[in-house]
Amino acid sequence: MPSETPHLVLVDGSGFIFRAFHALPPMTSPDGVPVNAVYGFTNMLMRLLRDRVGTHLAVIFDAGRQTFRNDIYPQYKAHRPEPPEELRPQFSLIRDATAAFNVASIESPGWEADDLIASYAKDVVEKGGRCTIVSSDKDLMQLIRPGVELLDPMKQKPIREAEVEAKFGVKPEKVVDVQALMGDSTDNVPGVPGIGPKGAAQLVQEYGSLEDILSAAPSMKTSKRKQNLIEYADAARMSYKLVLLADHVPLPQTLEDLSYREPDKDVLGSWLEKMGFFSTIQRMGLGAVAQAKGKTSSPAVSVTSEDADQGQVQLSEAPYGPYETVTTFEALDQWIAAAFKVGIVAVDTETDSLNARQANMVGLSLSTEAGKACYVPFLHEGTLDQPTGHQLDRAEVLQRLEPLFEAESVLKIFQNAKYDLTVFRKAGVKRITPIDDTMLISYAQSAGEHGQGLDELSELHLGHTPIKYDEVTGTGRKRIPFAQVPLERATEYAAEDADVTLRLWQVLRPQLRVRKSLALYEELERPLIQVLTDMEDVGIKVDATELRRMSADFAQRMEEIEGNIHAEVGRSFNVGSPKQLGEILFDEMQLPGGKRTKSGSWGTDSSVLEQLAEQGHELPQKILSWRQLAKLKSTYADALVQQMDQGTERVHTSFQMAVTTTGRLSSNEPNLQNIPIRTEEGGRIRKAFVAAPGCVLVSADYSQIELRLLAHVAKIEPLLEAFRLGQDIHARTASEVFGIPLEGMDALTRRRAKAINFGIIYGISAYGLARQLQISPGEARSYIDAYFARYPGIRDYMERTKEEAKEHGYVLTPFGRRCYVPGIRDKNGARRSYAERQAINAPLQGGAADIIKRAMVRLSHSLPKTDLEAQMLLQVHDELLFEVKEKDAEMLSSFVKKEMEAAAHLDVELKVETGIGSSWADAH
């Protein structure tokens, strides 16, 4: 088309691949290869060819991870995870798709796709043409100028100068200066600490270029920003080189080579047929191929081509119900066929217990589209007044569902999948894949912002209040088992849950990309479902005899302490009664510091008793000792025997995946997260967790992981150096803060430094440190002031983190997890201070949680590939516990240590301490 003004359309292929992969549910080709990203990419190319927006067309790809930027800064993009397993085979298929459409495919080793795009855009403009870049990538916005614009592939809207100014606060030619100052955590571009998007834009608006800003820094008003601009000037200059796109790349193909060419219909049709994209064949008018094969629809999810291009699923306004009660196998088969046709199905179970391992499935519900759901009852009992009528045999239902549950081409969607998978496993269903979990999809992007239960998510995202469990079963003494709920009412409740789950998935799944939580969900939360299900199923062996012996000992000691308490008070009373204890402490003994609760009684929680004990009062200390023994006796010594599976002598804790604000796991029935670690009694409890005959337990514990994360995120050079040299971090801190040589460091000084190190992580106050070290608040304040004077970067980190929390309502872990901080803007000073301490700690505790989750997923893949007879049993905070054949213990210990230390790459190395023993206490 030599007579036309060249209009070059460049598709950011690398960027679109990941968007399509994460936006669309799992799909497979007829030969079982994952193709959801290929499908999304194909539909995008189809749209471009349909609209014919340019005279020249090319798709630009990244050739590899290593580019010239890694020579400038080896850590550039270093923390980016490897592509998901399901995406890797799709890279070559997407290049095949490009060829099938007769479109040029371009990549160049040593250069990023963005550099090629910049070079081609420059080339076509210099030749009098114009360029449209199909991408919404912010890094490409620096290229916008007369003749060059971006086209957002999701919204199908152009991005020009006005849109860039709205995003960055500056014109396109100044975007690089802003990015150099603010850095980019996604690509690991350092920037200048403490300068965010707004601050960077203001500096550029006021001073001009980056060099102008750095030159003016010494004359700026004294502030932390001025100090950082001076201190990190070289980092800013390096960041500028990293974010500036190279527009001088040798062009692998000339502009003439990229002229638009019609695809060969036979070639394209054959390729689409091979992929199984028959609906795409029909939309492109290539129906002869589909007809020849007798195919009429694609195995993909039932979305329109527009939806596929944009990575969105259109929500239906369908009413909630009426729903179908399935009582014949013919009807069940129709639902199964519908699930295969659309490629997605929401699944929910109804049981007779909240404990998944004890629960019996009395029915299940399915939903294949909004407003369309059913309930399949198995074990409803009915009454004389309301008989259930015909129900299906559970074993045969599950047998008919097995092909659906195992089909890679159909996504199974759950709300709290781990519970349902455990229920299905107990009923004999061993494998359900692939799955999505709306609870975890929500949790990955909103931990701490709100609860993750189905009802709350429905009201929040759908504006719909589901039927409550109490509404169908009653409450209190009038509550009936769900198996006795009449089928009509049971269907309304159960099928609605599946319908709501499907609708939530349609809303929440696309938001993962918007909230930058895709990798977190795909690489940590979703894989952990199966990992934790397996761990819960295995359980851990306990020594019932030791537990009973322990319980008797605790009871005897409690009785002795109780006698001493009664003797000191001068009369008997119920030591376990907070009301009676408060009257004795504050009415009779007239001890200071008493405060009444809203009910009017005296408060006697542990903080009150600890304060009184620190003042030298013996009675509160005895009460604390009695309470600790009472808790250990009831929560562990007695409860573990009751919770033990009598056949296997194992207990099976339930891991809670979406409870904490920071991403940490919690557990219940039994709760193994709160066993005291540093007390003699806590050690005794761990002594009761034992290995099976012929096996031992291996404990692997991250060493000082939160301090390492603090050194990493706050860039504290003395701490970084101490970790790199393998020094005693607490002794080094004591030496730095108190000016005492490392050699001959006394234990008391080291203990004080240790208290400060760990206290800082939790935002400890001078009063809190004083209580911990039993010194005056003034002396504690002097210690903290000396600490911050030696490590000013830590204070900067704390202040910066608090400001980020106040601005956004959340803080980020180093791996991108959002940890919401309720109360950060509270007008009440005490609540706000508590929230600020949470904000300071959340990136560290959350970062540690992310790392050990990465390790667990990593080990779930690598451990089965070894010959080691071992299995992962427990995760408790920073520790993993394994059971292994005694002959393999040393090898497992080394293997786990290596895998856990490689789970993440920080500025300091991760260190894992391992131990081997016949009991948890011996191994820890």
From TrEMBL:
EC numbers for this chain = 2.7.7.7
Pfam families recorded for this chain?
A: 5_3_exonuc, 5_3_exonuc_N, DNA_pol_A, DNA_pol_A_exo1
Give start and end of each DNA-directed DNA polymerase family A palm domain.
682-888
Q: Which residues form the signal peptide?
A: none
**Record domain 3'-5' exonuclease: where:** 323-513
Recorded catalytic reaction(s): these are: DNA(n) + a 2'-deoxyribonucleoside 5'-triphosphate = DNA(n+1) + diphosphate
Keyword annotations for this protein, in alphabetical order, are: DNA damage, DNA repair, DNA replication, DNA-binding, DNA-directed DNA polymerase, Exonuclease, Hydrolase, Nuclease, Nucleotidyltransferase, Transferase
For this UniProt entry, the molecular function terms from Gene Ontology, in alphabetical order, are:
3'-5' exonuclease activity; 5'-3' exonuclease activity; DNA binding; DNA-directed DNA polymerase activity
Top-level taxon in the UniProt lineage: Bacteria
UniProt cross-references to SMART domains, sorted A to Z: 35EXOc, 53EXOc, HhH2, POLAc
Concerning InterPro entries, the annotation shows: 3'-5'_exonuclease_dom, 5-3_exonucl_a-hlix_arch_N, 5-3_exonuclease, 5-3_exonuclease_C_sf, DNA-dir_DNA_pol_A_CS, DNA-dir_DNA_pol_A_palm_dom, DNA/RNA_pol_sf, DNA_polI_H3TH
GO biological process annotation, one example: double-strand break repair
Q: Which residues form the 5'-3' exonuclease domain?
A: 6-261
Record-stated family: Belongs to the DNA polymerase type-A family.
Q: What does the record note on quaternary structure? A: Single-chain monomer with multiple functions.
Role this protein plays: In addition to polymerase activity, this DNA polymerase exhibits 3'-5' and 5'-3' exonuclease activity.
Q: What is this protein called?
A: DNA polymerase I
Species of provenance = Swingsia samuiensis
